[in-house]
Amino acid sequence: MIQKSMRFAYQGEPGAFSEAAAGRLNPSAETMPCRAFEDVFAAVASSAATHGVLPIENSVGGSIHRNYDLLSEHELPIVGEVELKVEHNLIALPGVTLADVRRVYSHPQALAQCEVFLRSLEEVDIVATYDTAGSARMIRDGDLRDTAAIASRRAGEIFGLSILRERVHDYDSNVTRFIVIARDPTPLGPPDKTSILFAMPNKPGALFKALSVFALRDIDLAKLESRPLRGTPWEYVFYLDLNASRTDPACARALEHLAEFATFVRTLGSYARWNQPL
Amino acid sequence: MIQKSMRFAYQGEPGAFSEAAAGRLNPSAETMPCRAFEDVFAAVASSAATHGVLPIENSVGGSIHRNYDLLSEHELPIVGEVELKVEHNLIALPGVTLADVRRVYSHPQALAQCEVFLRSLEEVDIVATYDTAGSARMIRDGDLRDTAAIASRRAGEIFGLSILRERVHDYDSNVTRFIVIARDPTPLGPPDKTSILFAMPNKPGALFKALSVFALRDIDLAKLESRPLRGTPWEYVFYLDLNASRTDPACARALEHLAEFATFVRTLGSYARWNQPL
To answer: How many angstroms separate the CA of residue B127 from the nearest CA in chain A?
Structure first.
């Protein structure tokens, strides 16, 4: 169901991992760089892009909570998912050596994924930026000879930076999972996964009761994430990923069952996975 | 059970919210500033401090995942908990106006809690630093007249900065929950809460089964947090807070029951709460 006329909005600059994720979905699609995750949602809502590609979880750093919050604030359904193996490199202007580096730029998630390496650097400031590839661009634009970025090999190529140190990520199995949002809820392929958002009354056993509707029907949970209900300390909304499509009758019945006692339930989408990391 | 000879290690500089949390626990205790959360764990492990005070969750920003990971890596028990109402201010050198500000420094969690305000600023770089109060110190030390910090009123007083804008946090009910770690597992007061860490075999219904041991005994869950099992994509460990002490027989039996089928269970501590935010 991948169409030729797709246009993928993503957060970051050319060379960002999100752009690579869009390329895995459809190598011939146009891509549209956005400054912030909010801008990806806005691009899809306004039809400036047909789809948005957003990182939702990394196997080392955990959930990208901001995107969970934005899914809740917007009404755009999830229509697909793709995984990407992440390889980080320390890159700098040609001729710069590790001894010249006084500052390392990257996205907070990338910094978190290279913690062991970064801790080994002495007298170096670690600066959080909005993007991995954007950090590479800042170094090129500012001709910053005392600064390095943590980014993909491709970001280095795009912005003319050299690799100072390859594969600086702490864990070899570093995979990021991206979701695809669209205005049209039609999944990109035959759906085998469903994401929902729900809240329960704050009572003993409430979450147990919620999970029972899936356990009693042998529906496997892929992920459970709790996020604060803003303005109400220590109350939560839950994001749940199920390994089933909502078109599957057991899953549909489980969601109806949950709605009987949840404060609210919203299905964020049933969608297909591209599950083989490149 | 609060002793006079307490020495609280905390992350940040004098004026940090963690220091204020230590002050709420025992106003006459010594405090010991540390650069990173890891250093707080190290100070307690080496007996350089009797206790460590660590933010674990904010009612707006959510969990402080790094401290969940550090609790898992270390063997230091949780012996107490305290809540603190958080009020953020934009502070700068005396005479600096909002129009002069080109850069805002603060801790990533504080930046996340002031998102609406920060988005209203134009042509201003948002820079993540290691500490709210430390950002105030950097401005004073560097005489940075184009930079403001988001920090507590007290941090402004300590480092001689003026308030440019009061209460810039997005949500009025902004509360941070801190845990207290120590080498001695004796709780700071009569325990009414227990934190555990566990993992389950990756099978359908596994989490439901884990929660059943508490639901069947009417033990209330306060918080459930999943964190990636590093090196194994899409497998998780769970951090669970129970509103019960492990000395309560029903809670003790529930933990034994969980151990029957969990991959592992570790009790991080049973402890007392100081639950009234100041």
So the answer is: 7
Do B171 and A60 make contact, defined as CB atoms within 8 angstroms? Answer: no
Position A33 pLDDT exceeds 60: yes
Query: What structural domains and CATH numbers belong to chain B?
Result: 7-86+174-182 (3.40.190.10), 89-165 (3.40.190.10), 193-274 (3.30.70.260)
Are residues A214 and B208, on separate chains, in Cβ contact within 8 Å? yes
- Tell me: the pLDDT tens digits for A237-265? 999 999 999 999 999 999 999 999 999 99
Asked whether the CA dihedral B137, B142, B143, B144 is positive or negative, the reply is negative
Lowest mean pLDDT among A50-59, A230-239, B134-143: A230-239
CB atoms within 10 A of CB B124: 16
Question: Scanning the structure block, which residue is given the tokens 């917007």?
Answer: A74
Q: Among all residues of chain B, which has the CA nearest to that of A127?
A: B128
Question: How high is the mean pLDDT in each 10-residue block of chain B (278 residues)?
Answer: 80 92 92 93 97 93 87 96 95 97 90 87 84 93 96 95 96 92 94 96 91 95 88 88 96 98 96 70
Establish, for the pair of chains A and B, how many residue pairs have beta carbons separated by less than 8 Å.
98
Spatial CA neighbour of B183 closest among B23, B70, B52: B52
Q: Positive or negative CA dihedral for A16, A20, A25, A28? A: positive
User: Which one, of B151, B178, B216, B204, lies nearest residue B81 by Cα?
Assistant: B178
Two structure tokens written together for A107:
């996205």
Q: Which residues of A fall within a CB distance of 8 Å from B208?
A: 208, 211-212, 214-215
Instruction: Give Rg (Cα) of chain A.
Output: 20
Six-digit token pair at B157? 């007083």
- Looking at A8, A17, A117, A178, which residue is catalytic? A178
Cα-Cα-Cα-Cα torsion A86, A110, A18, A61, nearest 10 degrees, comes to 80
CB contact under 8 A, B223 and A234: yes
> Measured between CA atoms, how close is A4 to chain B, in angstroms?
32
Q: Take residue A100 and report the two structure tokens written for it.
A: 């010249």
Q: Pairing between strand B147-151 and B103-106?
A: parallel
